[in-house]
Structure formats: structure tokens, C-alpha cells
Amino acid sequence: MIRVAIVGVGNIASMLVQSVYMYKARGSIEGVMTENIGGYRVGDIDFVAAFDISRRKVGKDLGEAIYEPPNSVPRIFDVRRTGVTVSPGPVLDGVAPHMRSVFEPIETNIGLGDIVDILRSSKADVVVNLLPVGSEEASRLYARASLEAGAAFINAIPVFIASDPSNTWQKLYREAGVPLLGDDIKGQVGATILHRTLIKLLHMRGVLIDETYQLNVGGNTDFLNMVDEERLYSKRISKTRAVTSILPYGDKLENEGRVRIGPSDYIPFLNNTKIAYIYIKGRSFGGLPVTLEAKLSVDDKSMAAAVLLDAIRVAKLALDRGHGGPIRGPSAYLFKHPPIQAPDDETAYRWFLEYVEKGIDINDAR
User: In whole angstroms, what is the distance from residue 193 CA to residue 345 CA?
Assistant: First the structure.
């Protein structure tokens, strides 16, 4: 059994909880990326704690809260009572000013010690951070709480914790012997993974990339939250580096302003559908131009939930093995801004398998 605590009972959490309960009821679910990870299957996941700030969700059973507005993911399974009551969390910077009427936050005096107590009493193995983009301070508070409670931390949003450039968080988790995975979860077949694949294909075939963009639109609260450009700083870095890292001259393109990647607009009637437009222009043989354009349409949060099912089981496996600090190989495969970037289809996937099957993780020098 893998005891999981969720931070932020939003759209991703709703799809994650529904998918686990569907698997438990049916013994399978379509589209699972990895069926068995260290002996753990999707049905071995149990939710034992949850945190949110919305008055529509706090105090309710998790099975009820996941369907409360403004959540808008498809209802793929009817989850009844889970026995987990959604606890209030601190608001901090988790709610942008223009989102207050949407989230209807409850102001509380909940602090670090209260969160640690809940994690310890629930015996959580893994904490999954699903706060809104831009929740820098709040994410770090939950990372600290997870560390003090001895629970593995999965940072699914673009706040740089596992990939902290100062190496502070990596060192703290390593010294405590607590696993850390992140940052910014990839989608199963999302815009970033498609963009990376197309860039890698053109580079492999000798095409020199001159410019590229990725424009994303959607209608859920994630896109509404990201209307505020100030909350997008880390998100744009995360998505941009995920793509430019494929090219040996990616930094040059980025510095010259010839790359633009990230959320572009909020279109309410799209609900939880995300549409990505990808454009790449380059020079092929003889310097002749080549232009590629692609459009991807997906259910936004099911893409993330599919990958989280793997990340949760890897985190528990790391706990079982006594591995502390950033789990680099699997993070390179499952996250947009991991401690170490690597191509998805070869290196990162191999690192993921090496860790799952043999317990071998990559080191700093590799």
C-alpha cells in the first residue's frame, strides 16, 4: 500500500483520485504508462490526507470535494466516501488576486507544524504538490512539511525544488534520507513532450532550428490563473528549457529571443480541453527552409494524472530502498524541469527503467 497526501484538490487531483478508484473497482484502466513499478500497481495507491483552501472543499470528504467547482475534469468514475476529510491549508501565495472569487479561500491560522502533524498522523508515504502555478511560498512550506514528516515529496508544479539551482533542497532531502521528485510534471502526451520529440527529430536529421514557439490555450482554472503573467515566470522557464535542452545551441536561441513557449490565453468554453499549437522553422540541406506546424488537443489534467501514477509509485519505491534526495533518473523522464535534462525516448526512459528494475540512479557527474 502507498499512502498518499494531496496538496491542492483541483482538477489534477480529481482525475488522479478517480483513476485510482476506477482501477481498484475494475482491476485495470486504459492508458496506464507502467503497469508494475517495483511490485506496486495503481490499485496499491491509497489517499490518506488532502489539503485545500476553498470553502467548497475544506471539511468535505475527498470523494465529494474532487467534484466541487471550479473543478471541470470529466467524471470518469463515481468515487464515494473515501474516509479522508480535506484539511484547510495556508493560503500564502497560492491564490492570485484575480482568482479569489473563483477559489473562495478560507483564511486560517494553519501553519507548518499543523501540516506536519496531519502528515504524521495519516502516516503518509508520499506528498503530491498540486498547487496552482505561481505558488512559490506555499510549495516550499509543503516541501518543508513533507521533509519533517519523512514523506517523499513529488513537486508536480513549476517551482524549482528538486531542481533548485542553489542545491539547498536537494541537500536537505539527501541528508534526511527522504526522496524528492520534480519539478513540473510532464503530460502523458502533452505539448512539451510532443514539442521535444519534433525538435529532436529535426535535429537528428540535420535540420538547423532557427525559431520555434508553442502556444497553449485552455478553459480550466489553471489557464485562468496563468492569465497573470507574474505567476508564469517559473512555468515559462520550465517549459522552455524542456525544449531547448534538446539542442546543443538551445541556450543561444533562447538568449536571442527566438523561442516562445507557454500558456497563451484562457478560453472558458474549452473547459478542461487544452489545445497546443507548435511551430518550428529551420534550415535543411543546402540551407533551404523547412517549416513544421502541429496542433494537439487533449484533456489537460488526465495527461498529468497518468504520469503521476508512475511518479507516486517510484517515490514509494525510493522510500523502500532508503534513497534520499532527488531521484534524478525517473525525474528526467517524468518531469519538465528535472535536476538533469535528457532526451525522453532514449536516455531518460533508460534511466527510469534502470531505477525501477535495478535501483540504479544517475549521479551528479553523469
Answer: 10
